[in-house]
Design a protein that fits this description.
heterotrimer, A mainly alpha (about 650), B alpha+beta (about 325), C mainly alpha (about 220), A: about 650 residues, mainly alpha, two-stranded antiparallel sheet, 19 helices, B: about 325 residues, alpha+beta, Immunoglobulin-like, 3 domains, 5-stranded mixed beta sheet, 8 helices, 12 strands
């Protein structure tokens, strides 16, 4: 990569171009620059690190729980702390790790993969991150001050209501939901609009990489599903703070209303988490099999089908409630149906591997691990979706077994594969293959040793969410095995972290394209420059880099003295207009703080909401206020016909 | 297979049908899983051969057609398996539905409390209605209609040997049916997180012959007899003068509160504290002195009793057979 | 598609792919309208999320309705129709100046845009005030029973949309009055697009809260 300050007399040389673009697109200096950044990679990277941190804390909580359960009638952790641990473990993993992590990976790589310089709304992106961070800090502040939520991550009423959960624990949970829901919706809008409007010329919709398709589908799901949990949690907060009666049966409310609202979100939520994993697997399988994924159209249609179908399954979380029996069987059938497009995607990857020339580096190992683990998760899911069997095994330890197989197998394994795959692009260094394989095997074996016994424990009659069990149940052996497995997972994560640290310090130089990949991110340097592409590339086929060898056709004419991106048409990506992006600004952070003040103060006193609303309006006014027009601005206006 | 306490340790018809379906689905799942692994393994093997022979990836149209055909076959196979799965589910669902030609069922109203169980037997004669706690007796061979109510939060009623679980939801009236086909003694548990002591909210289930059940019923209906020996008499005084009487009832005495479990026949129960402890004198002492050490968060406060009072109280409680 | 070779043997060797400009886009417009602008799409995204939120509230309303034998519950009065209907009419009428200033903005006609924007702001402020009065027309406090809570939820959820739109229009009006940046005209035009949505989505909510209790 050309040196940044190379003295260059030729204004057209790549080095000069790079210098000009860097000057325009880089973050400001120091802490202020960090706080005001509107660059998608900066924001995404810090979001990834934040999500991984929450993952680590939640993982420690899991380890503590497994220590408590390793022996019957253990006194390591009492019920109150245990309930806080399992609640914040689940809530943090679902709301502070899984969704933000996959969205951050998307916000980092989707713009590069589609050939643009930033996401569509740079300031909104920053706002989304700060909002997410505040929500996460809120949850764990609660835990560390013994006001951690303790009602379970899906917070059933009336237990979570004002009558049975005094104090602020549940309110903290409800507001954490609000923060993370805002952040998730913001990220979803970013992905959708960026993909629709800023793709490289020539990248028609049928040439969009599968990872990008997966993130678009997931983002649409977020827009429809997240508001339901936000509405539910707002209703819960209002029942607790201002005495509304949504869930109070003595005044016409209904505990089941909560369950319907929550699970209407909750079931799509797990597919929201799973579909990005499918996208990551697609990216890895193509590169490492040395061929594009087989059945592109089938995979895209399957992703869309999964997205739609996932909204029709939610009642399978409620089979033990007094809902009509015939209705319940419909949901068994719907839950079965979603296995078909899921199967299609897996079959297409197997076909890709079969006809490819795969090399089983660490990312591919994680793909095979995904197939092995997720299939167990999916099949146990079918067991749970069958009403009669569900009535026996739901709410037992079988359920944590199932969900961890699908979540670890379906999302974490693809994520770790993607980590090893994309680490070189982000950092410019390769990770250690040796340590990568070690951590993979530790995790693969660890996951099985931890969670297979839990499937058996559920069948054996052990309920879930118990802080202890009696010795005469005979469950001690399987629980101890599960706890040992958790130790293996912990070691595996430690090895992974060591791998990351050592590779950051002294990994082999990666170059632009260590894997010979097919998508645009491999065309630029590692790490990528702040502006991504010196010229916006033109794409001639589905596999952008495999369609052409040698130089890539590109588009010139975007300004080099201010942040400008190219916008293209939605279907065929024909260049349509140019758009100036904002410079770094502190306003998104201030807006997030205003929202934070409102939502957090509001838990303590309703006046806080009003204050927060006013502050937010002021911040938004500052956001929308026009900055002074820069000199040499040539506005070319095209009014509608 | 009889893995004691598991969903396969069946003792009644709904559980048997469910266990059969579960086995079927587990086997189908295992076979499917092996097929998927095999397909993946074959793909990896084939690809390794390609690599060692120095061939590049095969993206020819002919290969594409073959792969399309194979993916189509796999998808069709998946769909067929799922159809079988849904049919088996529907059939089993129908089989375990409320038996329309059931003989007169026994009706029991179950009320869940944080963290104990209340059972009310609704005999045809209202004067014969029986209320008891934490111990459920049912006659073998007779269908039992269970009505599920909750006093506070959502609980779940689950006797794995007899049937799947159903939730007790405040504001809703849920019903299910169970039927024991053989005698047995089992431990049932609450199966929906209900707060601090969800882990220790169990109840004892006894399925016995109709004659034994009738005998038990009659004994349970009987009120407690007044104590005769002096220690038990003193114990009775302790019971009604201290805080016990504020939450517990004993039929035939002035103790009538139904905040906590009723204790009319506590001496005959197999366990204490909703299945948390075997019913022994030592355990009862520990429990009364400080329930918080055994079930932290439970609604029963510690009771500082002098050893003399405690001995007397225990003597009295032991008369409540 | 070219046949793809092996993964490169040594990582560090690959340089970036050189980019060869063949097209120049410097004459593409940078102020365009409607779906050519990302904010139009962003607004659609927010509309989708807001529709989902409102549908959650409305669905809850109908769910709670099933819990009652008489609806509204006994001793709970029906909501008034007068203020809510006036409020609805004013809301619909507010779309007229909105349409007019959008049309003017598409022509870059500053005086017409400003004139109709200020009319729209005034009408929307009236609509907002009427909506605040409408809460009283519900004739019940939010904490009285579940019916009251869901009715308030529907009206309040939509109120946030109305308030946001009013404040946004006001802000734009102030910006256009004081600075009039050319590049803000598309945003001004698109603000009305959101207003159409905001009014349209209110109609089923109005029917649910004010008419359905009279019909069941």
């Amino acid at each position: 990569m050309p040196a940044e300050h190379a003295v260059d007399t030729d204004p057209n040389s790549p080095a000069s171009l790079h210098a000009r673009l860097e000057r325009v697109w880089r973050n400001g200096p120091g802490l202020w620059g960090w706080l005001t950044s509107v660059n998608h990679k900066s924001i995404a990277l810090r979001s990834i690190i934040t999500a991984f941190t929450f993952f680590g804390i939640a993982g420690v909580e899991a380890a503590l729980m497994r220590v408590q359960l390793a022996r019957p009638e253990n006194s390591f952790i009492g019920p109150d702390l245990y309930n806080q641990l399992f609640t914040t473990h689940g809530s943090a993993m679902m709301f502070l790790f899984a969704v933000p992590m996959v969205q951050s990976v998307a916000l980092y790589f989707v713009p590069i993969m589609i050939g643009t310089r930033n996401v569509a709304f740079p300031r909104l992106n920053a706002f989304g991150y700060w909002t997410y961070l505040i929500g996460g800090v809120l949850l764990f502040s609660g835990l560390f001050t013994n006001t951690g939520p303790d009602q379970g991550w899906f917070s059933y009423v009336p237990l979570a209501g004002p009558g049975f959960s005094p104090g602020k624990r549940v309110d903290i949970w409800a507001q954490m939901i609000t923060f993370t829901e805002i952040a998730a919706i913001v990220a979803a809008i970013e992905v959708i609009v960026t993909v629709f409007k800023q793709r490289a010329p020539g990248m028609s919709l049928n040439r969009v990489p599968l990872f990008v398709w997966a993130m678009v589908v997931m983002s649409f799901m977020v827009l429809v599903a997240m508001p339901y949990v936000a509405t539910a949690s707002a209703m819960l907060a209002m029942d607790r703070l201002i005495a509304t009666q949504f869930f109070n049966y003595t005044e016409g409310g209904d505990a089941l209303l909560w369950q319907h609202l929550f699970w209407f979100f909750g079931h799509p939520e797990v597919y929201i988490i799973f579909i990005p994993g499918l996208g990551m697997v697609s990216a890895i399988v193509a590169t490492f099999s040395r061929r594009p994924v087989f059945g592109y159209t089938a995979v895209v249609l399957s992703l869309v089908a999964i997205g739609f179908l996932s909204f029709g399954l939610w009642v399978h979380h409620m089979f033990a409630t007094p809902l009509p029996q015939t209705g319940q069987t419909f949901f068994t059938a719907a839950s079965a149906m979603i296995a078909i497009p899921t199967g299609v995607t897996i079959f297409c990857w197997i076909a890709t591997i079969w006809s490819g020339r795969p090399r089983f580096d660490t990312p591919m190992l994680y793909v095979v691990g995904f197939i092995a683990l997720f299939t167990i998760g999916g099949l146990t899911g079918l067991l749970l979706a069958s009403v009669p069997v569900d009535l026996q095994i739901t709410d037992t330890d079988f359920l944590p077994g199932h969900i961890h197989y699908v979540l670890l197998g379906g999302m974490v394994f693809p994520l770790f594969g993607a980590l090893h795959y994309w680490f070189p692009k982000v950092t410019g260094r390769m990770m250690s293959e040796r340590l990568g394989k070690v951590s993979f095997w530790l995790l693969f074996i660890g996951v099985n040793v931890t969670f297979f016994p839990q499937l058996l424990l559920g069948i054996a009659g052990m309920p879930r969410r118990v802080y202890t069990y009696l010795a005469d149940t005979g469950w001690g052996g399987l629980n101890l095995t599960s706890s040992i497995g958790a130790g293996l997972i912990a070691v595996g994560i430690v090895v992974l972290v060591i791998n990351i640290a050592r590779s950051l310090a002294a990994g082999a130089a990666a170059g632009a394209d260590p894997w010979g990949g097919e998508t645009l991110e491999w065309a630029i340097s590692s790490p990528a420059p702040d502006y991504n592409f010196a010229y916006i590339p033109i794409v001639h086929g589905r596999s952008a880099l495999w369609a052409d060898t040698g130089d890539l056709d590109a588009v010139a004419g975007l300004r080099e003295d201010r942040r400008e991106v190219l916008q293209t048409t939605m279907l065929d990506a024909v260049p349509d207009s140019r758009h100036e992006h904002p410079d770094p600004t502190i306003v998104p952070l201030l807006t997030a703080l205003a929202v934070g003040v409102g939502l957090i103060w509001g838990i303590l006193d309703p006046i806080g909401f009003d204050v927060g609303a006013v502050l937010t309006f002021i911040a938004l006014a500052a956001w929308g206020w026009p900055q002074k027009t820069k000199p040499n601005t040539h506005e070319i206006v095209e009014v509608p016909k | 297979m009889t893995w004691a306490g598991s969903i396969f340790d069946t003792a009644g018809s709904p559980a048997e049908r469910i266990a059969r379906l579960a086995w079927f689905l587990i086997i189908v799942s295992a076979v499917t899983y092996l097929l998927v692994l095999a397909a993946t393994g074959i793909a990896m093997r084939r690809a390794r051969v390609r690599r060692t022979q120095g061939e590049l990836a095969d993206t020819r149209p002919e290969t594409g057609k073959r792969l399309t055909r194979n993916v189509a076959i796999a998808t069709t196979l998946t769909t067929l398996i799922l159809l079988v799965y849904v049919s088996a589910t529907a059939l089993t669902g129908k089989a375990i539905a409320w038996p329309l030609n059931a003989q007169q069922p026994l009706t029991i109203e179950v009320t869940g409390h944080q963290w104990w169980w209340q059972f009310r037997y609704r005999d045809s004669l209202p004067s014969n209605w029986l209320t008891t706690s934490n111990e459920l007796h049912i006659p073998v061979g007779r269908p039992v209609r269970v009505i599920l109510l909750s006093n506070d939060v959502i609980h779940s009623f689950w006797i794995p040997e007899l049937h799947g679980k159903q939730d007790l939801i405040p504001g809703h009236r849920n019903t299910m049916w169970i039927k024991a086909d053989r005698p047995g003694v089992w431990k049932a548990r609450c199966a929906e997180f209900c707060g601090h002591q969800h882990a220790k909210m169990a109840f004892d289930v006894v399925a016995e012959s109709p004659a034994q059940f009738a005998q038990w019923y009659v004994r349970q209906l009987a009120s407690a007899l007044p104590p005769t020996d002096s220690s038990a008499k003193h114990g009775y005084d302790v019971f009604v003068q201290r805080t016990c009487i504020m939450c517990h009832s004993i039929n035939g005495t002035e103790a009538g509160s139904n905040v906590g479990p009723e204790l009319t026949h506590i001496a005959s129960r197999p366990s204490l504290a909703a299945g948390s402890l075997p019913n022994t004198r030592v355990n009862l002492t520990r429990w009364i002195l400080n329930p918080q050490l055994i079930k932290p968060g439970v609604r029963m406060p510690p009771n500082a009793l002098s050893p003399a009072d405690m001995t007397a109280l225990l003597d009295y409680l032991e008369t409540l057979k | 598609m070219t046949v793809v070779g092996e993964i490169p043997a040594e990582a560090g060797r690959q340089a970036e792919r050189p980019l060869r400009p063949v097209v120049n886009v410097s004459d593409l417009p940078n102020v365009v309208y409607g779906s050519r602008v990302v904010t139009w799409w962003g607004t659609i995204g927010f509309m989708a999320a807001e529709t989902a939120t409102l549908s959650a509230c409305v669905a809850s309303y109908y769910y709670v309705l099933r819990n009652y034998e008489s609806f509204p519950p006994l001793r709970t009065p029906l909501p008034d129709l007068f203020i809510p209907t006036i409020s609805l009419i004013v809301l619909v009428l507010s779309l007229i100046p909105c349409y007019l200033f959008a049309r003017a903005a598409k022509r870059l006609d500053k005086p017409a845009t400003l004139r109709w924007m200020w009319v729209a702001v005034v009408v929307m402020l009236i609509a907002t005030a009427l909506r605040v009065m409408e809460f009283r027309s519900l004739n019940v406090r939010w904490d009285a029973n579940a019916y009251a809570s869901v009715a308030w939820a529907v009206v309040f959820a939509h109120f946030t949309l109305l308030l946001a739109d009013t404040l946004e229009t006001l802000l734009f009006a102030v910006i256009m009055q004081t600075r009039e940046p050319t590049r803000y005209y598309p945003g001004v035009a698109e603000d009305t697009f959101y207003s159409y949505f905001m009014v349209a989505v209110w109609i089923p909510c109005y029917v649910t809260v004010y008419l359905v209790p009279r019909w069941v």
